[in-house]
Q: What sequence folds into this?
């Protein structure tokens, strides 16, 4: 006979302490997992955006822009090319397009919609006024491939991967609303020169600073573009050159050297 009392179990206070500690551990674990998932999602979205831009570079390099048949009639007086959808009797004309030249693509970020952007396909005139070969971008008259009557449009409407926000777009450190790539009519004398010389084909970077409101955007030549992405907790900068797009991650927008402001 031991004379002692048998244990009657835990007290209410002890149970409450255990539950409180367990709950706190669950909250900490949940926040950790959620944070890891958010970081993974952010990194994945930023890298996917870089991959999409690299794809656009490759498409311009290869001259690929559409499998859809349309008619493009060029102008030799400086007017934009005229574009319309093909009818059943015009399928054989696809690819000839009466003096038009595939120029490239332009990635345009929508004003007031930080999670959306669009990719324009560009065409231009092969000849300038007087039926002479176009030798600079102004002569070509870069034109978005869509008809004025709305029956044909090659524009791709896109959403930024993982719904990330585009905080800033810059070309050579200057704020821009979009940038893209155009095929050259030859090799330029210097990077900032708008004139082309005869020689090997190459692509050039172009950009626009204003919101695009017409089919003939005003384009300037650039060398390097950056896209600042954020989920309001993490930051990333996609740096774009003529050959590729790469991503670098930051914990604070101030660390980006002004690329996110």
A:
């Amino acid at each position: 006979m031991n004379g002692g009392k048998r244990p009657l179990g835990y007290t209410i206070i002890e149970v409450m302490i255990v539950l409180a500690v367990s709950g706190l551990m669950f909250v900490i674990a949940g926040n950790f997992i959620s944070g890891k998932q958010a970081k993974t999602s952010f990194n994945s979205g930023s890298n996917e955006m870089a991959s999409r831009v690299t794809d656009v570079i490759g498409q311009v390099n290869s001259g690929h822009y559409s499998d859809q048949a349309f008619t493009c009639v060029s102008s030799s007086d400086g007017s934009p090319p005229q574009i319309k959808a093909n009818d059943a009797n015009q399928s054989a004309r696809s690819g000839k397009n009466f003096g038009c030249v595939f120029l490239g693509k332009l990635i345009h970020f929508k004003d007031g919609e930080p999670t959306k952007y669009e990719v324009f396909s560009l065409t231009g005139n092969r000849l300038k006024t007087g039926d002479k070969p176009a030798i600079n971008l102004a002569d070509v008259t870069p034109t978005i491939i869509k008809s004025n009557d709305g029956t044909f449009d090659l524009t791709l409407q896109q959403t930024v991967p993982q719904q990330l926000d585009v905080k800033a777009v810059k070309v050579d450190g200057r704020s821009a609303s979009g940038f893209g790539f155009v095929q050259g009519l030859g090799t330029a004398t210097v990077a900032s020169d708008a004139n082309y010389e005869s020689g090997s084909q190459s692509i050039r970077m172009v950009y626009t600073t204003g919101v695009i409101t017409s089919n003939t955007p005003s384009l300037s030549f650039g060398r390097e573009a950056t896209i600042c992405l954020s989920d309001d907790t993490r930051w990333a900068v996609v740096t774009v050159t003529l050959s590729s797009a790469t991503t670098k991650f930051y914990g604070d927008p101030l660390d980006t050297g002004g690329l996110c402001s």
Notes: Residues 47-64+101-124+140-256 form one domain. The helical segments are 12-62, 137-140.
